[in-house]
Amino acid sequence: MSAPQRWTTARSGHRVVLASIALAAVAALSSSLAAGPSTVDVDIAKFAFVPKEITVAPGTRVRWTNHDETPHTVTSQGATKVLSSPGMDLDDHFEFVFTGEGDFAYFCTVHPMMTAIVHVRKGAAKAP
Ligand SMILES: [Cu+2]
After folding, report:
1. Does 27 or 67 have the greater pLDDT score?
2. How far, in Å, from the CA of 52 to the mean position of ligand 1?
């Protein structure tokens, strides 16, 4: 009678250790998410970048999502070539973290009339 009891005790102890490891993993994941850059979304819909103009703080990640069935790109205008996405199909994302201040005009290489701009300013409100 005493042997099965010890076995049960050892098993429940093992379970407690596993639960602690899982909790530590969740805590590590959420703290790394909290420390990561905040994200601002730009939609690509009906052959337009929406919003067409945004202002973000340095360190902000901008994430473009294509909602059109037509492929689009996010490509820097001029010589900078900061932004250079591949062709994005429906529901594809493209992300870029803006580290320094500046004005980043971009367009779609497939439809050059699609233009937009990201302003990066130290005073800009942090995204939630
Ligand atoms: Cu396009």
Report:
1. 67
2. 14
